[in-house]
């Protein structure tokens, strides 16, 4: 007769073996590697564009002084721009800048024929209405995809500038080699610049951006008013789960369908043991034991979001050059 202690030890070993095998099965999606490949390709395309007699694409950046995180983001974006052949200029505005002054600055960039794309780095000063600023950016230069025109066209399945984070999620999913048409997707976030555009691009059935096709998925949006039991039920049934809530460890293993694709978009700074680090919504240590593929934070969507900004800027340059050519031909 086998002692109960031996049976218990054997069961524990079997469970540990199963957890290890499940963890090895989960593919960790390397967003940095995907971004580098994309930027290498974009660099070649821009070089060819310039060799054909066009000027390099140009991105104008507006950022409020004194925000360390914003400064770090801008440095990364400008470094990637330089790498692919996009020129940049940065307008650093004091925290005391009024809304009127900022709107006038944006209007001047709208009229500047050398500026192809306009990026207003968030956050702005509390006294400035972000939506009002985005509203006046010329749709032809809206490389962030935040204007009412861009978001409206996205809703209507019209060609537009898709927000860069949504494009990053789309790029990840499109490069996994997994059939997605008709699959169930759940997006945890309805933020107008993040969750909503992601949901729209997942469910859309047609061309959206300048080289982006909708993914034809059955998509559900969850948000802070979704009852917890419903959130768990929706998430557990998703083939693709995308989360951008900003609540560390929100997504646990019991909320993930075995073999599902999980994409963490959230970006939250936490301090642990006196050290500052960035985390997402997904409890990676748990979820990697259940998910089939996982895009973690950091190193997942973030690098690709910057790459998509470069792509949008190049698209803006090509569209504006086409407009100038048509205008010249009418003269």
UniProtKB/TrEMBL annotation:
EC code: 3.5.4.9
UniProt name for this protein: methenyltetrahydrofolate cyclohydrolase
InterPro entries in the record: Aminoacid_DH-like_N_sf, NAD(P)-bd_dom_sf, THF_DH/CycHdrlase, THF_DH/CycHdrlase_cat_dom, THF_DH/CycHdrlase_CS, THF_DH/CycHdrlase_NAD-bd_dom
Keyword Isomerase part of the UniProt annotation: no
This protein's record includes keyword Hydrolase: yes
Assembly with partners or alone: Homodimer.
Keywords: Hydrolase, Multifunctional enzyme, One-carbon metabolism, Oxidoreductase
UniProt-recorded Gene Ontology molecular function terms: methenyltetrahydrofolate cyclohydrolase activity; methylenetetrahydrofolate dehydrogenase (NADP+) activity
Protein source organism: Rhynocoris fuscipes
Tetrahydrofolate dehydrogenase/cyclohydrolase catalytic domain location: 29-144
């Amino acid at each position: 007769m086998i002692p109960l202690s031996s049976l218990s030890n054997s069961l524990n070993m079997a469970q540990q073996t199963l957890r290890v095998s499940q963890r090895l099965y989960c593919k960790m999606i390397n967003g940095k590697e995907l971004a580098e490949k994309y930027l290498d390709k974009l660099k070649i395309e821009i070089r060819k564009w310039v060799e054909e007699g066009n000027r390099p694409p140009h991105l104008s950046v507006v950022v409020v002084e004194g925000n360390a995180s914003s400064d770090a983001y801008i440095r990364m974006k400008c470094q990637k721009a330089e790498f692919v052949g996009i020129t940049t200029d940065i307008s650093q505005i004091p925290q005391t800048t009024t809304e009127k002054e900022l709107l006038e600055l944006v209007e001047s960039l709208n009229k500047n024929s050398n500026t192809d794309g306009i990026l207003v780095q968030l956050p702005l000063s509390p006294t400035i209405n972000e939506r009002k600023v985005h509203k006046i950016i010329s749709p032809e230069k809206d490389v962030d995809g935040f204007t009412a025109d861009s978001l409206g066209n996205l809703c209507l399945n019209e060609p537009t500038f898709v927000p860069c984070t949504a494009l990053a999620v789309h790029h990840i999913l499109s490069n996994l080699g997994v059939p997605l048409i008709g699959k169930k997707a759940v997006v945890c976030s309805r933020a107008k610049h993040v969750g909503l555009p992601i949901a729209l691009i997942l469910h859309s059935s047609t061309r959206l951006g300048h080289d982006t096709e909708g993914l034809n998925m059955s998509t559900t949006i969850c948000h802070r008013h979704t009852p917890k039991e419903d959130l768990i039920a929706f998430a557990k049934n998703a083939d693709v789960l995308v989360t951008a809530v900003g609540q560390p460890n929100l997504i646990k293993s019991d909320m993930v369908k075995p073999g599902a694709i999980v994409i963490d978009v959230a970006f939250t700074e936490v301090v642990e043991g006196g050290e500052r680090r960035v985390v997402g919504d997904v409890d990676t240590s748990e979820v990697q034991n259940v998910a089939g593929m996982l895009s973690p934070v950091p190193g997942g969507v973030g690098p690709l979001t910057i790459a998509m900004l470069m792509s949008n800027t190049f698209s803006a340059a090509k569209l504006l050059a086409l407009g100038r050519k048509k205008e010249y031909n009418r003269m």
